Amino acid sequence: MLTKIVRTVANQLIVFILIFGLYVIAHGHLTPGGGFQGGAVIVSGVVMMLVAFSSQELKKSLRERVLSIMESTGALILIGLSLAGIGTVFAYNFLVGTPIFGRIPDFGPGPGDFWTGGVVPLMNLAVGLKVVAGLSAVVLALALFASGEEVEE
Amino acid sequence: MKRQVTGLVLLLVLVAFLVWGVLPPTMRDFGYPPSDMDDYIIENAQEETANNNVVASVVFDYRLVDTLGEATILFTAVMGVLLLLRASKRKEESS
Question: How far is residue A142's CA from residue A136's CA, in Å, rounded to a whole number?
C-alpha cells in the first residue's frame, strides 16, 4: 500500500478513467475505439488501484469468481448475437432497419446518430465486458500470486 | 559444415521468397493497392450495416469470425492463467 497522497489521488482519478472507458465502449460504433480499447482503458484503472492499494485490499471488492462469470457472460452474448442472424448467414446484422440501433445513416461522412449500427453496439458492450473481466482477473491473479496470497476460487 | 551449408541454402530460399513477395507481378505498384474489397465496403457499409463507423462495421460485421477468434484467444489466456496459478497453489498445500 502506497502513501495517503497516492491513494487519495487514485480514488479521485478512477472515476474519470471509468467514465472514459465506458464512453469509448458505448460509442464504439461512432468514434475510434470499441470494446477492446475501452476495456483496456478500464483495466488500466484497475491496475492503478492495484498499485495504489494492495492486492489484498482490492480482493475484498473484486472476486475472481464473479470476474470469471462476467467474462463467460460476455462471450456467450457475443456468440448468441452471432447465431441470432443464422437465418440469413452466420453473423448477419439482423437489427438493420429495426427501431433498436437500426437507423440507416446517409451515405458519406456525417456526425452519426447513436441509434445506428445494428448489432455492433451490443457486440461492443459484450466484448468490453469480456475484456474488462478477463484482464482484471489475470492482473489480480498475478498480483495475488506475487504477494503469496491464495487465489480465491 | 553440413549444417552451415543447409542453413545457408535455407537462408537464400527465404530471402528469395521475401524478394519475390515484393516484386511487381505479386505486389502492385506503390500507391495502387488491390482495392476491390475496400471499394465495396466503403460504398455499401453504411447502407448494409447501418453503421457510420466503417472500421467498426468491418470488425464486428463483415469480419466477425476474426473477432470471435480474438475473443477465443483472450478467453484461453485468462483460463490458462487462472488454472495455472490455482493449480500451483493447490500443489503446495498438498505437499
Answer: 10
Cell numbers that stand for B75 in this block: 478467453
Q: Which residues of B touch A (CB under 8 A)?
A: 46-53, 55-57, 59-61, 64-65, 67-68, 70-71, 74-75, 77-78, 81-82, 85-86, 88-89
Given a contact cutoff of 8 angstroms between Cβ atoms, the answer to whether A150 and A105 are in contact is no
Which of A75, A90, A120 is opposite residue B71, by nearest beta carbon? A75
pTM, two decimal places: 0.81
| CA nearest to A71, candidates A132, A141, A143 | A132
Q: In this predicted model, what pLDDT tens digit does every residue of A59-91 receive, in sequence order?
A: 888 888 899 899 999 999 999 998 988 888 888
Predicted pLDDT of residue A93: 85
The contacts of residue A128 (CB under 8 Å, 6+ apart) are: A21, A25, A28, A34, A35, A36, A38, A39, A42, A74
Can you tell me the ipTM of this complex?
0.82
